[in-house]
Specification:
The protein is mostly helical and 361 residues long. The protein is built from twelve helices and six strands. The chain has helices at 3-25, 50-64, 67-78, 91-97, 106-121, 151-156, 160-177, 206-222, 229-242, 264-277, 285-303, 339-352, and strands at residues 29-33, 40-43, 142-144, 186-190, 194-197, 337-338. The radius of gyration is 19 Å and the shape is globular. The two termini are 28 Å apart.
Length: 361
């Protein structure tokens, strides 16, 4: 079976699943689904994951070309508008991925522009970044690896000042999260003593490096001319692990716990980042492409739920990306379907089949 065959079939399956999910959740936002029944746990406002649901609906609209699907995607994106001025750096995840695929939708474009300007206004020059914020609870002055993806291209949409802010925001996170003492995905700031590493998420958190690799890939595509040496070094360091044959295609949720759950969502994020890096000419392009395809194929073959066999009772919906881990330390949704895992798997498959230009999302 050719790449186009297996990727095309999987893409149809996950987008059919999105249609079922849309019916199931109504005006709420899906967060994670039970691996046995496919039943979703939902949120009313979307939390930090709402943009991935909107983005998935935009992918379905592009795939089907149906006006009803486009209207559903547009309506979902409009419900993200209250996040534009919220005090959270996860606006990058919410409002970049919730609008980036909405080509030709004027309201989505306006929302992205509004959010970009609001995020630029939240830049803290003293810290050199946009703080984690207070909207989702907990300490406000944090720097976390998941506060960078989406924020880099969103800030860049705010003009020259936004591009400079995006570069500073990314670099400060790379300096902290990829420090010489080893990767630490979260840091807390104290006015008297400066930055200190947090215990949660732990150093072995699977999505930490995946999020950083995605942000670096976006920054490399947006940098005019030769990229800064520090950015190239960070990319090389992250790629040495992401493309290493000795590392599993689907990582453990916490690498310090090889007896614990996997995290397919981290694998899907990594695959998308690698597809973006494969579009940058250079010696690593082929390795990035091959690894990305291998990861996506493994997710499809080993972790995507399939239709029930003829005559068998359906036990769960087809098209679920299983074995995602929301939070292994708290034991929350450790082998579940995750909405951001679905989104990044679908985005990767859409890129392989030519449905989208991966460099534009």
């Amino acid at each position: 079976m050719t790449r186009k065959d297996w990727a095309g079939r999987a893409l149809a399956s996950v987008l059919d699943r999105a249609a079922v999910t849309r019916t199931d959740v109504g005006t709420r936002f899906p967060l994670y689904a039970d691996p046995g029944s496919g039943r979703w746990t939902t949120t009313g406002r979307g939390s930090w994951t709402g943009g991935f649901w909107a983005g998935l609906l935009w992918l379905r609209a592009r795939y089907t070309g149906a006006e009803a699907d486009r209207a559903a995607a547009s309506e979902c994106t409009a419900r993200l508008a209250p996040w534009a001025e919220s005090d959270t750096v996860t606006r990058g995840l919410i409002l970049w991925y919730g609008t980036a695929l909405a080509f030709g939708d004027g309201e989505a474009t306006a929302l992205r522009s509004r959010a970009a300007q609001a995020c630029l206004g939240a830049m803290d020059p003293g810290l050199g970044l946009i703080p984690w914020g207070s909207a989702l609870g907990g300490p406000r002055l944090l720097a976390r690896a998941d506060g960078v993806p989406g924020m880099v291209p969103l800030l860049a949409a705010a003009g020259p000042g936004g591009a400079a802010a995006a570069e500073a925001h990314l670099q400060r996170h790379l300096d902290l999260c990829l420090g010489d003492d080893g990767p630490r995905p979260a840091w807390c700031f104290d006015a008297e003593t400066g930055w200190h590493p947090c215990e949660d998420p732990p150093p072995g958190w699977s999505r930490g490096r995946a999020w950083l690799l995605l942000a670096v890939a976006d920054a490399l595509h947006q940098t005019p001319g030769p990229p800064p040496h520090r950015l190239v070094r960070a990319a090389e360091r992250l790629l040495s692990e992401a493309t290493s044959p000795s590392n599993p295609l689907v990582p453990f949720a916490d690498r310090s716990r090889p007896d614990g759950p996997l995290d397919t969502s981290a694998a899907a994020i990594t695959a998308v980042a690698l597809l973006k890096l494969a579009r940058i000419p250079g010696s690593t392009a082929r390795a990035c492409s091959c690894r990305a395809v291998a990861v996506l194929n493994r997710l499809v073959e080993a972790h995507l739920s399939r239709p029930a066999a003829d005559g068998a009772a359906a036990h769960r919906p087809a098209g679920m990306l299983l074995d995602g881990c929301y939070d292994t330390a708290k034991g929350t949704a450790v082998r579940h379907e995750l909405i951001w895992g679905d989104f990044f798997l679908t985005l990767g498959l859409a890129a392989l089949t030519g449905l989208v230009d991966i460099t534009q999302v």
